[in-house]
Write a structure and sequence with these properties.
alpha/beta
């Protein structure tokens, strides 16, 4: 589904998908760090479209949750469906990242907006996995 290798892409928006809220972060490969950009209501594709227009990313990254042993669960399929919807709406490559424990890590770091902080952790993990 993704035509370009991740290393060819430079700017990204990342999403920590949830059924009530979606955390958003942006980042560039040059710096290798991500910045939390807030939270949107789940299903608010107009707000997501506005973020895509503002940040003009080369690609999108979606955190996909799994059980501790790596097995999929109900939220795995929902996050993957969200990624497919993003791809169809924005015609951008969408990459999935295993997001186990990102919300826990964001909470442990004292994040004010846990969802956006988790999205930043997801994007930084993507940068580590695709240097």
């Amino acid at each position: 589904m993704v035509a370009l290798a991740p290393s060819q892409l430079q700017s990204f928006l990342a999403f920590d998908f949830g059924t009530r809220r979606i955390g958003v972060a942006s980042g560039t490969r040059l710096l290798g760090v991500a910045e939390p950009r807030g939270t949107v209501k789940s299903g608010d594709f107009a707000a997501i479209a506005a973020l895509v227009k503002t940040w003009q990313p080369d690609a999108l990254v979606v955190g996909v949750p799994r059980h501790p042993d790596g097995a999929p669960h109900e939220m795995t399929a929902k996050a993957q469906n969200f990624g497919r919807r993003l791809s169809g709406r924005h015609h951008l490559p969408v990459f999935e990242v295993d997001e186990r424990y990102t919300s826990v890590e964001a909470e442990a770091e004292g994040a004010h907006d846990v969802d956006a902080a988790a999205a930043a952790l997801i994007l930084e993990q993507f940068f580590r996995e695709h240097p």
